[in-house]
Design a protein that fits this description.
One of its GO terms (cellular component) is membrane. Belongs to the KdgT transporter family. By secondary structure, the protein is mainly alpha-helical. It has a single domain, classed as Na+/H+ antiporter like fold (Up-down Bundle), CATH 1.20.1530.20. The protein is 68% helix and 0% strand. The protein is globular and about 60 Å long.
């Protein structure tokens, strides 16, 4: 039976039903091709350019497009909420992971490298944040999507690795990682039409660079890293989510609404690309990139399933599960 929208096989719709599916499905397909028929993508010309070598330029385009969606017209409450999300989701987890790395080295613990931990823990799934806060949050929560635009991508991972001395990340590599984002912010604020034009870019480029990344993943790595990736996802949601929750309760004083902070306890689909970016900047991390990519991919899915369940359950327990649709007047919720 054909799809009501006119698709004989609604592939896009089916992929989107799976959390992170727009990235995870092509990633798995790419890994199948890369494992069992790697020569098929080595025939050259546009085939090799698109399906094997396109990851880095397409990721760069995605970062630029993400920047265009960040506007300067944000009020104090939105900026305060954004700061709390970045502190709890990126800064504190990053510092803790680097402290661990100083003790155990870049190989990490129990088969999970410091690279995988940073890639999985220091960013959030912005789309899922919008979905959860759209159901349970206020305008200031939805506006904090800016945090997802800032921490999405490899910048924080590169920054922490370079600053800690665990890797030799050249300053120009850090600068190069954020130039597309900064230019995107400038363009999006100067010309709103560009911002609107680039809105659909994620849906267009993510499946293609995910497939290209997948071709570099050996399924043997997935088999060995899959379970640890699931465990990582199970830990990422409560640990990083609770840090944002504490920020909501102690800094923003949101009281019974504070469980919304657990919506940040996710891993962005774009984080799957981070190990490859870091390995390109510092080849010493190449040995960890394959396993880290598969672990982060598993973490994306697991955290996307757990975070909404935790937010819903905790808000029901606090008696504030009803949707907050209005911002007027928003009284401070007593702790």
């Amino acid at each position: 039976m054909s799809d009501p929208g006119g698709s004989a096989i609604p592939m896009f719709k089916v992929m989107n039903r799976l959390p992170g599916g727009l990235m995870l499905v092509p990633l798995v397909l790419g890994s199948l091709v890369g494992t069992f028929a790697p020569g098929a993508l080595e025939i050259g010309s546009f085939t090799t350019a698109l399906f094997k070598d396109s990851a880095m330029p397409l990721i760069a385009l995605l970062i630029f497009a993400t920047g265009t969606q960040v506007t300067m017209r944000t009020g104090g409450p939105v900026l305060a909420t954004t700061g709390v999300v970045l502190l709890g989701k990126s800064v504190i987890p990053g510092l803790l992971i680097i402290a661990l790395g100083m003790v155990v080295g870049p190989e990490g613990l129990l088969g999970v490298s410091i690279l995988a931990l940073l890639a999985a823990a220091t960013n959030a799934n912005g789309g899922l944040w919008l979905a959860i806060t759209g159901q349970y949050g206020r305008e200031r929560d939805r506006g904090a999507y800016i945090a997802g635009a800032v921490n999405d991508g490899p910048f924080f991972t590169l920054l922490f690795i370079g600053a800690s001395g665990l890797g030799q990340i050249p300053f120009l590599a850090l600068l190069a990682a954020i130039v597309p984002f900064i230019l995107g912010v400038i363009v999006g604020n100067v010309d709103a039409q560009w911002r609107e034009t680039l809105k659909p870019v994620p849906s267009i480029v993510i499946p293609f660079f995910a497939f290209a990344l997948g071709t570099g993943i050996d399924l043997a790595d997935v088999a060995s890293g899959g379970l640890t990736g699931v465990v990582l996802g199970v830990l990422i949601t409560p640990i990083t989510g609770s840090l944002v929750y504490l920020g909501y309760r102690l800094l923003l004083r949101r009281g019974a609404e504070s469980p919304i902070g657990f919506a940040a306890g996710t891993t962005s689909g774009n984080a799957v690309a981070t190990p490859a970016v870091v390995a390109a900047a510092d080849p010493s991390f190449q040995a960890y990139a394959g396993a880290a990519t598969s672990q982060v991919a598993a973490c994306v899915l697991v955290s996307a399933l757990l975070a909404p369940l935790m937010v819903s359950w905790l808000l029901k327990r606090s008696g504030t599960a009803a949707t907050v649709r209005s911002e007027e007047p928003e009284e401070e919720v007593a702790p």
